[in-house]
């Protein structure tokens, strides 16, 4: 609990409740003597039936004790500003401070969504311009900025598909094709929208199998949900043929844009034949994913699908910006007001800061970083790259620890836990489902060569340890405040602990 012990084995910080103290964090001013004379002792004026009999079971702490407590907690945390954060699929890149600063300007922060349009022309213009930029980057016709996350963007896209087929009188189209390498939100969103999910097995190349696709397409196909580059980091080279096949069957092509980072400024989903696109502003456009804060998953569509977009859209009549609610074919609203405006401001600032050339450069550096890592990691004993190991990856690469597991008993999860002992953030594990013992790595443009080398060095040491003293790796982490958590128990509703008192009770009864 004191700085000296930091970064040593089992450093920890007690809960505020566990502190013992009877100090005070606040001092209220004395009552004015005149009021005191008139009112008397304020405590005596509170009816005794609502007065506490015993003091509350919380310690009394001074202000600085509380400040130290929260500062120590923040120092135990690991974030994008601490070190590399190669959480595959999440694009955990640096969020320039200037973008944060702009999102916190009082002109932004103090806006009220019910303010008159005439008073928020700047905010409307920002959304209008951001939409145009996203269109230019993706090759789509219009975007809604409302959805709060990628998953909600997917749901919005699926609802648009359903509205489109209803409009065309093709409501029998109730099947959504999803590759087996897809992110779990894809089948979930389709199912939530009432579609029957048809899983497409990947080809040996790790990409969509055209044979499987042809076999699955029918007059019941609503669409195909695809991410490109896919979750293995591989670019779907047959994308034009895939688009033709889906369109010939009367279906629509949905782009899960969570992986846009790998082609940003280089290739556009609109040009690949996609009809609906969602982007994760909180991945590609500088609000870090998983930050626990608000996100944003704008959805773009072709001209043909524009009329189904959620209301309102931001329009410009030549002299002022306004919100258009008069859209009879719209699927309605998917979020209160206009979405998470602060994330839009950060994305706007980031695009302005980088320029389109800068965005392309970020994509290139991210791709080089990942391929540098991929080339070196293949040389470490126990790790392999399944599916076309020598084919360049885009923004991310999936490494398999299957060989390590077979030869030493050390699993991908053990490796991830041991990385924490080296002060490194683990990669994404156990996704995608088509790889055994996967470790999914994404270094983004924010990682330096030195950081990637250090990561590789840690993996090399972990490989050596696995062959010499596997138990050390299997019982990791050893130096974190919380040791290995029970993932299943942590997720189980019956063991869910939402308050300190609940935790105490459960501990007593266990
Ligand atoms: C992150 C991600 C999603 C879901 O996005 P959220 O914003 O987390 O809902 C979907 N697909 C892929 C490939 C992703 O990486």
Mind sketching the topology for me?
Layout lengths: L32 H7 L2 H4 L17 H14 L20 H7 L2 H4 L11 H18 L3 E3 L5 H18 L7 E5 L5 H8 L3 E5 L9 H7 L4 E6 L12 H10 L3 E6 L11 H4 L3 E4 L1 H4 L14 E3 L11 E4 L4 E4 L16 H37 L19 E4 L1 H7 L3 H10 L6 E2 L8 E4 L7 H20 L1 H5 L12 H5 L8 H10 L1
Parallel strand pairs: 2-3, 2-4, 4-5, 5-6
Antiparallel strand pairs: 1-7, 6-7, 8-9, 10-12, 11-12
The protein binds pyridoxal-5'-phosphate.
Pyridoxal-5'-phosphate binds next to helix 7.
Intertermini distance:
27 Å
CATH class call of the domain at 98-109 and 117-353: Alpha Beta
Number of helices: 19
The whole-angstrom Rg is 27 Å
Total number of beta strands: 12
> Do you know the CATH architecture of the domain at 98-109 and 117-353?
3-Layer(aba) Sandwich
What is the name of the CATH topology of the domain at 98-109 and 117-353?
Aspartate Aminotransferase, domain 2
Proportion in helices: 25-40%
**Kindly state the mean pLDDT as a whole number?**
92
What structural class do you assign from the helix and strand content? Answer: alpha/beta
Low confidence ranges:
1-10
Amount of beta strand: 5-15%
CATH homologous superfamily grouping of the domain at 98-109 and 117-353: Type I PLP-dependent aspartate aminotransferase-like (Major domain)
